[in-house]
Amino acid sequence: MNLHSDNPEHGFQFPGRFEIxxxxxxxxxxxxxxxxxxxxxxxxxxxxxxxxxxxxxxNYHSVAISFQASxxxxxxxxxxxxxxxxxxxxxx
Length: 92
What we know:
Elements: E1 16-25, H1 30-40, E2 44-54, E3 60-69, H2 72-83, E4 88-91
Antiparallel strand pairs: 1-3, 1-4, 2-3
C-alpha cells in the first residue's frame, strides 16, 4: 500500500510505523519490558529496531523501539501502556 498526503506537513499519518522512547532506572530491565508492554497493549512491535542508551552517569536508561499504529488511538495506547508502568518514568 502506498500512502501519501496531499499536505506532507499535516502531522501524523495513519496507519504508520512510529518510534517510541521510554526512560527509567538503569536497573529496570526496560529492554525486555518495553516490547512486552506494547505487545500486551495489542500493538505490533518491530523488535529488530530496539535501541538502548544509558545516561552519562549510568543511573538512567532509555529504550527506543518502533511499532505499528493503525490509528491515533493505537498511538495514544502505546504511550498510555508504558506510562502506566511504575518503572517507566518518561516517554517520548
